[in-house]
Amino acid sequence: MNDRSATSYTHGHHESVLRSHRVRTAENSASYLLPHLKPGMTVLDVGCGPARITVDLAARVAPGWVTAVELTDDALSLGRAEARRRNVPNVSFVSSDVHALDFPDDTFDVVHAHQVLQHVADPVRALREMRRVCAPGGVVAARDADYGGFIWFPRLPALDLWLRLYDRAARANGGEPDAGRRLLSWAIAAGFDDITPTGSMWCFATAETRDWWGGMWAERILQSALSRQLVDSGMATMVELKEISAAWQAWAAAPDGWLAMPHGEILCRA
Ligand SMILES: C[S@@+](CC[C@H](N)C(=O)[O-])C[C@H]1O[C@@H](n2cnc3c(N)ncnc32)[C@H](O)[C@@H]1O
């Protein structure tokens, strides 16, 4: 791997981060892909994290097979635990980097990445690699949030600071937090000529979803890899992070609190 592909994952895998990944399902995170899945297909899920989506995909393509990829063994152990918990046998976990996937050409019917390309150093190279391991006529699918497009109410100043700090930290790690709007251009640059671009939104506005999102970020901004990075690099003080944490709690408690996250999606024919 050369330097261009080296990056670090901004959020890390603290419990408060995993809580946000564990509500994900194939239905709420990959609905644009689902009509293209059929029993018997082989799927590669890149950057599977705790593998909630991965295991859903495995259940849909059984008796086909899902291979899930993560950078480290620690991250893979989360996925393995999820597959055991749900008793889904047709999934295996392999460590590999999306910039240099350890699979032969034309191996999979579907190659999928959810919320991954925003974190990698070279998303165009990553998409080329995803295409290389996808069989001709197969599908490369990616979905990413676009942080610059997040909107919320009430407009608490500490939450504006949260977004500015997140943007700085993600870019310092070599990522692109406004990935959603760029997926189509990355796919074109990667050489795809049959691309279906779409968008979709997550919205948190009920007492239950506000409590989950606001409570998760109230903890995450104080305890995750992101908070350590912000303080250690001098981008923020612990006092500011505590203000942001309190603002997330205030937002979650506001009966009119509302937040929307836009996502870009691409379905590319290999
Ligand atoms: C935001 S998480 C998404 C996890 C999962 N896809 C989901 O949506 O629940 C991004 C994941 O991508 C992994 N990742 C980051 N860079 C990667 C790379 N170069 N190759 C493979 N995985 C990577 C991270 O370790 C992290 O678990």
Automatic annotation (TrEMBL):
UniProt cross-references to CDD domains, sorted A to Z: AdoMet_MTases (cd02440)
Compositionally biased intervals (Polar residues): 1-10
Segments of this protein annotated with the region Disordered: 1-21
Assigned EC number: 2.1.1.163
One Gene Ontology term from the biological process aspect of the record: methylation
Pfam families for the chain: Methyltransf_31
Domain of life: Bacteria
Cross-referenced Gene3D superfamilies: Vaccinia Virus protein VP39
Keywords: Methyltransferase, Transferase
Gene Ontology MF, one: demethylmenaquinone methyltransferase activity
EC class: transferase
Annotated Methyltransferase domain residues: 38-146
Stated name of the protein: Demethylmenaquinone methyltransferase
